[in-house]
Specification:
The protein is of the alpha/beta class. The protein has 12 helices and 16 strands. A hairpin with a 5-residue loop joins strand 14 and strand 15. Iron/sulfur cluster binds next to strand 6.
């Protein structure tokens, strides 16, 4: 629940802008109207940590003017810009670097225009499949109770011939996306981690058991599902904890077996990973998609912990007591694709992590390693 909301005057000319505002008022969230042309200003903060915390408690309802969609390679073609930021406060969140020091939560009132633009982009690429990522700069699930934007996008892509949608979440309130006509065009991925990592670094997110229960529920509802584990951290006892995590994931996947998918929803959808510029199928439409369907395949995306000097500075300014392992002397310095440097685990540790997870995933029914970085 946001502590305060700011609604751009222009957002009220859209039904979604009005409905979000109504809901906020019914929930007794103080709503401030931002007149056209006025600049958004948040309460003054004495420290970066306070400013960050205030921003994470502020919801801004806006109209998205930019009609361009950012690309999202290699896992999707485009970002679907429905929401930006999220109420979670994970110490390592990369949005601290990309969204700046005041990452307030932005939701867009002109959702229908945004989806229309997505439709135009798909049309331009026809007959190729076009994949959209809904969580590139946000976790969209925790504000779904206000916006309904994920549900709208899921049904939109359900009707599309060549569009696929995917998003990832660390939250568990999946109720609003159950029972939709998704036609297996949306892959719901859950970001999971060892209990120790969730409890120590992922503040204000759902607990592991809650996320696993949500994973089972969306799987039961017929969605293709995926698992992201990141950051993988080699704390003391990491192998035991990650082994337990993999066992719990297997149990959740088993309890969420898609035995009851209605016939019309089981015919189409994404059950294979699409990495742009790499494994994109050149086929057309739904018939071919159904031929590639592997109902119980679950892809694992694994990301080992890494940091840049800039990210470390940002993290320490908003979490002065951050306990993330960021000692450069224990890491390997690597030059990134865009000229910046990042600190990764040493090669031996990376190999140990890879061997551990390859083994664990090979024993997971339907488990496939999509990538490990
Ligand atoms: Fe960032 Fe995701 Fe955590 Fe939100 S839930 S703070 S987007 S890492």
């Amino acid at each position: 629940m946001p502590r305060r909301a700011v609604v751009e005057e222009e957002a009220l000319s859209y039904p979604l802008g009005r409905s979000i505002t109504d809901k906020l008022q019914k929930l007794n969230v103080p709503v401030q109207l931002l007149p056209r042309g006025a600049r958004l200003s948040l309460p003054r903060a004495k420290t970066s940590a306070q400013g960050y915390e205030e921003a994470k408690n502020t919801l801004v309802v806006r109209v998205r003017k930019d009609r361009d969609f950012a690309s999202c390679k290699p896992s999707a073609h485009y970002q679907l810009p429905l929401i930006s930021s999220c109420p979670g406060m994970c110490q390592y969140c990369y949005l601290q670097t990309t969204l700046g020091p005041r990452p307030y939560i932005r939701v867009y009132a002109n959702r229908d225009q945004i989806l229309k633009t997505a439709g135009e982009l798909m049309d331009r690429r026809k007959p190729e499949i076009t994949v959209f990522e809904g969580a590139a700069t946000s976790d969209p699930l925790p504000v779904e109770y206000l916006t309904g934007s994920l549900a709208a996008a899921i049904e939109f892509f359900g009707k599309s011939e060549t569009g696929l949608f995917r998003f990832v979440t660390k939250f568990n309130d999946v109720e609003p996306i159950l029972g939709l006509d998704h036609r297996r065009k949306t892959t719901v991925r859950f970001s999971l981690n060892a209990d120790h990592v969730i409890r120590t670094y992922e503040h204000r997110t759902a607990g592991l058991e809650q996320r696993l229960e949500a994973l089972a529920r969306v799987k039961q509802d017929g969605y293709p599902v995926g698992v992201m584990i990141g950051p993988i951290i080699t704390f003391e006892g990491w192998k035991e904890q990650y082994s337990r995590l993999m066992e719990r994931i297997a149990a959740a996947l088993d309890s969420g077996r898609t035995v009851g998918i209605p016939e019309d929803r089981s015919k189409t959808g994404e059950d294979m990973p699409f990495r742009t510029g790499q494994a994109l199928p050149s086929h057309t439409g739904q018939a071919r998609l159904s031929q590639t369907r592997q109902p119980d395949v679950v892809h694992f995306e694994l990301i080992t912990h890494r940091f840049t000097s800039r990210a470390k500075r940002n993290i320490l300014s908003v979490f002065p007591n951050a306990c993330l392992p960021m000692d450069e002397s224990e890491r390997r310095l690597v030059y990134g694709q865009f000229g910046y440097t990042k600190y990764l685990y040493p090669k031996e540790t990376m190999e140990e992590i890879r061997a551990f997870f390859e083994n664990a995933i090979s024993r997971m029914p339907g488990g496939r390693l999509q990538y490990l970085v």
